Amino acid sequence: MSILPVCPLARFQLKRRRGGLFTSCCLLVVLASSSAAVQREESSSRAGAVPESGPAGLFSETVEVGSILVPVVVRSTDGSYLTELRRKDFRLLVNDRPVPIESFERRAEAPISVVFLQDLSGSMATAGRLEASRGAIERLLEQARAGDEFAIATFAGGGLNVEVPFTTSVETVLEAMGLWEAYGTTALHDAVAWLPAIGAEGRHPKRAAILLTDGGDNASTLPPGEARAIVRQAQLPIYVLGLDSGDPYELRSHPQPGGRAKMHRYGDVLNLLAHYTGGSYIAVDSKTDMKAALARITEELRHQYVLSFRMQREGLRDDFRLRIEVVGRKVHVSTRQGYRGTPPAAWNLP
Fold first, then answer.
1. Taking 90 as the threshold, does the pLDDT of residue 342 lie above it?
2. Is residue 26 part of a domain?
3. Residue 189: CATH number of its domain
């Protein structure tokens, strides 16, 4: 039986680092048979919606448990963002069947919830990777707006710590980063499997996770496929900044049995993880790459639409495919590829 991470903010403990004592959140795990915990991952307990005809079409502070958030970024064929779309312009399909959109957020100025997942394993100490990570997060924090909130989780030595639960205090995030030291092994797939649960703690419907890593993995208990299946439950896009982790479309020669001589580098694994959530993998090999990557992520977050629909309160839990169409337009849509839960509530209606 596999283990799912589902309760990221369950308790706090003091953890000692060379820089001193700091408060760290100890993550708990439960068995995959706990359907109530998985239900928590697929609902947003504090962010919800009012009809688009309400005040500025804003999301309110309550949402019915069992709502699925679907973040969406839409670009035209020339790559520019489409920012003036309305609810009626979207068509939401679950397993290719249309489902009514219950709520809709489109404001570019709406606050965001961002979790940074930072690789602190020993390999990050080389080639200035850890310093590059700090610099990237600092630049993103410099662009924070009123109401934006941030969380930091780090992984190394086979474990994961939520060092800063969601907060609007930029200073708290910067202080935590000042204590970072690279050490130990890398359990990348185990770490990313926590993102659906950590991201669910965000207050705002506009959300994202940013993973900063060199892409190696030498300690995970979860295989890549199982990690990707868990990540598909995330209600937020995951952006992966791959520090020297390789181009996912580059093939390198390796001797293989049976005459096969090519296989993808780590970038391919990271690219798949990002794709399932509507995010993207960006290879970063220089300061120029990093600057461009940060600009892209910031733009996408501000231009993100968030749609939602309700699941049935009871029913057989299964994996469902998600698809978003923009009516009457030829566009590129980035969104999550599916969810795990009960069928849409609308399927019960006559």
1. yes
2. no
3. 3.40.50.410
